[in-house]
Structure formats: structure tokens, C-alpha cells
Write a structure and sequence with these properties.
This protein is α/β, with parallel strands linked by helices. The protein has helices spanning 2-35, 43-58, 69-75, 95-99, 118-129, 145-156, 164-168, 172-181, 188-209, 212-219; strands at residues 83-87, 106-110, 135-141, 224-230, 237-240. Helix 4 links the parallel strand 1 (83-87) and strand 2. It is globular. The N and C termini lie far apart (71 Å). Mean pLDDT is 86; it is low at 1-35.
Amino acid sequence: MHSHDSDKRRLLKALCCGGIALGTVAAAAGVGAAAGKKTAMTAQQALQALKEGNEKFLNDSLQAPVQSKERRLEIAQGQQPFAVLVSCSDSRVPPELLFGRGLGELFIVRNAGNTVDTVAMGSIQYAVAQLGVPLIVVMGHERCGAVDAALSVVEKNTSFPGSIGQMVEPIVPAVLKAQSSMKGSATRDALLDAAVRHNVMRVVERLRTTEAMLAEPIKAGKLMIVGARYDLDDGRVEFFNA
């Protein structure tokens, strides 16, 4: 019995010491991230880089993105992205390709319907507070399936299986806003597109006005948050409320 108690105490001691060691490593990693180099771009320069990249994407004049072995090794010990892209999970909307960017340039947060839950918010805050990212772009897209599902909930009281219903719930207020802002004769396609835009702006306004960790860099002129919409048909990204 005594031997069993001794073994138990030794195990607890090992676990505690291991926990302290792991905590120390985690803290050191955090300090390293905070102390690392950050992008030298301003928010306007970052936005202009995205606009120019999308223009080249439209014209099929993109150069090969920076994804060489040398670049991979260069950023292996730290990252310096110049923009956060909050975008939809849709396979037709890959941010790096739409803007012609390579390894380590964009910090991407993707959810169906470009919504922001707790995990996404933490990711965004980390990119701003620890990596010094000067620009956040919230990008919706034409004919978004998640927004379409939210529209079906409002129009037909549609229910979806599993977690899909919960996923589209945050988009419903944007659909209601779109309905109230449009005339009764609006087509469903027009209503869907309006809902996509309202959904983007709801997220933008939330990030701008309710998140304390983002408010200070915005006030200091070190952070800009804008909305965008990607057109599936012509490939253009339209920025708004910049």
C-alpha cells in the first residue's frame, strides 16, 4: 500500500513538472511570435496589393506565386502575413489564387458563409495582436450556398440536418436585412446577392465595433477592416466600405 502511494506521488510530481515545462515552452513560443518580424506594409498598401493581384488574375497575367523551397525555408521559423482573409469555405473561392499570393502572405480564416465563430475570432485577433497584420478583408461571394440556405430558412422555414442549421443561423439576420431593404418585386437572385453583401457587412461591423482587441489598432490607424464580394462568373473581387 505504501509502495502504491509512493508511486502515485511520483507520477503526480512528474505530471506537474511536465505541465510546467510545457507551459514554459508555450510561453516562450508566444514571446517568440510577438518578437518576430512583422510586415512593413500599411493597410492601404496591403489593400492595393490585393487589388493588383486580383486584376492580374482577371487578365491571366499572374506570375508564379512565391512558393519555392527558398521561400518555404525563409518563413519556416516565423510568418509575416500582410492581410487576414475571412472568406467562405467554397472550393471555388481560394483566396491565394484569386489574389496571386504565395506562401506566408495571407492569414486565412474560412467558414461556410464567411461567418466568424469563437475559433475564427481568436484566429483573427491572433493575426492582429501577435503578427501585426494591418488589413482584414471579409469576403463573401456570388451565389453563396450558406447564404442561400439561410434564405430558404426565412422564406420556407427549411430545416437542415446535423449542424448545418446551426451553421446558417448567424446569416439569417443578414437575409432579413436584405428583405427589408429591397422592394417586394425583387427576384430571388437579387435578394440572395443583397443578403451576401449584408452578411459581409454584418461581420465587418462586428469586427470594427464590438471587439476590444481590434478597436485600439483601428483607432491608432494601424488596422483597416473592409468588405469584399467575389464574382464567380467574371473572377472580380469588389471591395466596399473601405
